[in-house]
Amino acid sequence: MGWQDAEGGTPLPPLYSTTEDFPKRDKILPQFDSNFEEKLFAERQEKLARIAALATGPDATPAQLQAARYPNSFPFTINVPDLRAAGDPKTGEELEASPIPAAITGRVMAHRSQGKAGFAVLQQNGTRLQIYVRKDDVGSSPEQAQALFDLYKLLDLGDIVGVRGTLMRTRTGELTLHARAIDIQPGQPALVLLTKSMLALPDKYSGLEDIETRYRRRYVDLIMNSGAQAKPAPSADVSSRPESEQSADAVERPASPPTPDTQQPTPDTELNVRATFVKRAAVLRAIRTFFDARGYLEVETPMLHPVAGGATARPFTTHHNALDMPLYLRIAPELYLKRLVVGGLDRVYEINRNFRNEGVSPRHNPEFTMLEFYQAYANYHDLMDLTQELITDVSKEVNGTTIAKFPLPQGPRAGEWVEIDLANWQKLSMREAIIKFWPASAGTPPTLESITTQLDHCLHNASKSMEAYLENFSEGDQYDEAQLVADDPEALQSLREVFELRRRTRELQRSLKQIFDKHLRDGSNKAYSDIFELFAEEHLIQPTIIYDFPLAVSPLSKVKPDEPEWTERFEFYIGGFEVGNAFSELNDPVDQEGRFNDQLAQKAAGDDEAMGEMDSDYVRALGYGLPPTAGEGIGIDRLTMILTGSRSIRDVILFPLMRPEKKDAEKSELEKESDASHGESAE
RNA sequence: GGACGCGUAGCUCAGCUGGUAGAGCAUUCGACUCUUAAUCGACUGGUCGUAGGUUCGAUCCCUACCGCGUCCA
C-alpha cells in the first residue's frame, strides 16, 4: 500500500471528553449488550477514520479512505516465533553490530506510551514480542514520523498491526523490534494498522478466566490464553516476577526461546488453550502416520444413517426433504467399516465425528471424535499389542515422552494430579479386575472359579457384607461436629473422612443392590460389566487392558471358543475412564442376525441400553463373507485429554455444546410468541 | 435426573446475618523519548443472572426459573 506524508505538527483534536459529546446513533450492532461496548465501538470507529486519513493523506477520495480502513495485505518477512528464535541468542551489541531487519504482524496486547516514545507488545502465533516506537526515528521524514507516531497513539489493545524495524535489546535486556524504515522493504512505513479491534479485550493481566465465557467465546480464549499472558503461573511464587528477572538475566545470558505450542501442561504451568489444540492436531497427525505406515487405508463412511447401528446409544434424528426420509446422525461407523473389509479393503481406519443424543459431562460431549480401525486376519490379541504400540507411539510423537501428567477427573481422588506411564500396561480379565478391586466392605473377594460359576452367590454375600459393614458404622452419627472444631481440628478431619467413607460405602451398597436385584430378575451376565464399572473402573489409572466381556453386552463380538457366554472383547482404561473398545468381529451372519433379534427383544422389554434396530443389509454383507477381523474404536477427545492434562472434554473441543444464552428481551418475546400460538390453537 | 456451589462495571474481584454499590485493569482527557501488571493526575462506566415474595427499605433473607461448575445417577 502507498504512503503519503500527512501534514506534520498538527495536534490531534480530542475524542469525546464527556458523555454528552458521544454521538447519538442507532444501535449498529445489537449484539453489543452494554452502553460501554456501544460507546467503545463508536470511539474506535472514529479512531479508525482518523487512522485511515493518516494513511492516505489529506487529498484522499472517500473511496480511498474507505479502503484504507481495512487494508488487505501486509508483506511480513517472518513469524514472531521465528524472529524470536533468531534474536533471542543475540546480545544487544551483536544486534547493533549486525542489525536484523524484519516486517512482522501481530495483535497489540500491551500499549505503553510515554510522551514522544512508546512500547507495545505484539502477539502472533502464540508468541509475544515487544516493539519500540520513537517519534524522532519512526519515519524517514519528520512529516512521516509525525504521522506514524500519531498512528501509534491511536492504537488500542487488540488492534492488529504490521511493523517494520530492526531488532534491539532494551536497557533491561528485552528483545524488541525498533520500528523504523528498513532497507529490505524500501519506502514502506514502519507501522501500519491492519485491523482495528472494535471491542475491548479482557483484562491484560488477569486475562479471561470465566469458564463459561471461555467456551462460548473461544476466539477470545485463544487470544488471551495462548501461553504468553503476563500473569505468572497460579502455583508460582506470587511475590517474584519471573519474567522481568529473566529479562534482566538476558543481557549476559539470553534465555532460550519460549516454545508455548509444544510445552507439556502440568499443574505448574499456566492455562494454554492454544497449545492444547495444537497438540490435538499433533495427536491426529501421529495417528494417521501410524496407520498409514502399517498399510491401513483412511476412509470416510456416511454420517447420515438410515439405521443407527454399531453401538448402543440414542441417536439424533433428522430428515431429508427431497427424498422425504428419516435419517440418523451416526452413533458409530462400525457397520460401514466392516462392510468395507467384506469388500476387500483389509485394513481401514476412519477418524471422524460420532453423535450421541445423551447427557453432557466432563467426559461426554454430544458430538465427539472417534478413531475406528479394522484389520482382517487379526483377532483381539493382535489389537492389544497394536493398541499399546499406538498409544506409546502417539505419546512420544506428541509429548516427546510416554509420561503424562493428568488430573483425575472422578472418584475419591478427583482433581489429584497423577503421573501416568503410557508405555507401561497391565492386562486383567474383567473377572480378575472385579476380584482385584473387590472393596473391603464387601467381604472376602470371590475366586475366579466362584465368580464365574456362582455370580448370584457372590453378589448375595457382597450385599450382606456391606449391609453389616454399614451397621457398624452408625455410631459415627453421634459426634457433634461443632464441638470437634473447637476441640481438635485433626479429629474433625478424620471424622469427615469417616463420613465420606461411609457415604461412599452406602452408595456402593445401593448400586450393588440394584445390580443384584436386576440380575435376579433377568439372570443376565450384564451384571459382570456393571459390577466391573462399580468396583474397578475408577482404579484403572495406569493404562490397563480389560479383556473378555459378557456376551450379553457384546452383540457384535465373537464368543470365546472355550466359554460361549464370554466374548473376545477388550476395553482399555487410562486415568480412570474408558478410552478404547475392541473385539474380534463376529462374522457369522446367522449368529449376527440372532444377536440383533436378541437386542430387539431386550429393547422391547425396556432395556434402554440395547440396540433398537436391525441392519439387515449389514447381515447380508456378512453373508458374502467377512474374513476373520478385529476392530477397535478409540475416543480421540479422551486420549487428547490425557495427553494434554485436561480435566474436561470441553477443554479439548474447540466449540463444546453449550445451552444458548438467551437475552432477557428475547426470552420474554419467545414467551409471548408461545403464549400467542397457544391462544390461536385454543381458538 | 439429584445434591452442593457460583452468577456484582468490558475483564479480574471486594461488598460486614438488610439502609438502592466499591477497587484494580481497560475506556476518555492531561503529563512523560528504554517501558514492561509502566508511572502520575482527572474522569467515565452498574436493571447486583431473571421473575416473584418478605420488609418502611433487598446485591444481601425466602421461592421459582435461567446459565455455568463440581460431585453423584
Description:
- The structure is a single chain.
- This protein has 21 helices and 20 strands.
- The radius of gyration is 32 Å and the shape is elongated.
- Helices cover 39% and strands 19% of the residues.
- Helix 9 (273-293) crosses helix 20 and helix 10 runs parallel beside helix 19.
- With 683 residues, it is of the alpha+beta class.
- The protein folds into four domains: 19-69, no CATH class; 72-260, Beta Barrel (OB fold (Dihydrolipoamide Acetyltransferase, E2P)), CATH 2.40.50.140; 269-302 and 332-433 and 536-674, BirA Bifunctional Protein, domain 2; 438-524.
- The strands form four sheets. Strands 7, 11, 12, 15, 16, 17, 18, 19 and 20 form a nine-stranded mixed sheet that branches. A five-stranded mixed β-barrel has the order 1-2-3-5-4. A three-stranded antiparallel sheet has the order 8-10-9, with no helix packed on it.
- It binds one RNA strand of 73 nucleotides through helix 1, strand 1, strand 2, strand 3 and helix 6.
